[in-house]
Amino acid sequence: MERTIQKKVPVGGGSWVTVDVYGEVDAPSLVVVPGVMSDAHTWGRVAEAVDAWPSVVVVNRRGRTASGPLTNSYSLRTEVEDLGVVLDEFDHASALFGWSYGGLIALLTANDRPIPQVIAYEPVTRPFGRHALPDLKVAAETADWDRCVEIVNRQISGFSAAHVEALRADRQSWAVLCRLSGPLYAELGALNAMMPPDVLARQADRVDLIIGQCNRGTAPYGDSFDNVRQHVARAGVHELPGQGHLAHLQAPAELGHLLSSLAAI
């Protein structure tokens, strides 16, 4: 489906989020919550591939163009409250999908309110990436976004130096990652500052957790996935063949089709 509108939603505290709506504006929708170093634009191809819902609403979380600033009071709770405002605005939402940090936000939101279905792709939780916070703090304070991207790939994702240099050689893609790394330190700090509740998605009627085949049982994403899974009382577990954490970029059609196959409507 094609993008229909982009809407600005005030969330209070001097900030706002924008949302991209694909398909029928007032129809039952899948609400998509991107994670760290990602925005609504990078999820466009996934949204276009989804066909099980009449509409897809992609949240452009605060800290990203053209949404508002994080603000000094930013926390993981801020993200949950922002998403609550979006869900109030789009009260026809029938399912909520989050990727990575966005997956945790979606699961926490389903503790606050009834949600028919929550889907999360490799959600992360404390202590994910905590060891990299000191170096990220220095890089963020000096606005060294190139260094931020390097830290994420080397210290958190565990990629080799050769892999990082290959990524850097694609100047356009690297520039996008640098642009999206602005909120990274604050977001990772918020993730590690909050102790997750004993039960996640308490008020969801159905929960589906997705892991990329390449990350099954491996650090860091597979380990965090297993940690989150222990906090979800009842969840279906699904595997996306041949993929890792960045399936929305490397296999958007396949991810969109998997999401459609999980639709409970």
UniProtKB/TrEMBL annotation:
Annotated ranges, domain AB hydrolase-1: 30-255
Signal peptide start and end residues: none
Extract the InterPro entries matched here. Answer: AB_hydrolase_1, AB_hydrolase_fold
Which UniProt key words apply to this protein?
Hydrolase
In its UniProt entry, the species of origin is given as: Streptomyces mangrovisoli
* Protein name in the entry: Alpha/beta hydrolase
One Gene Ontology term of the molecular function aspect = hydrolase activity
For this protein, the record's Pfam families field holds:
Abhydrolase_6
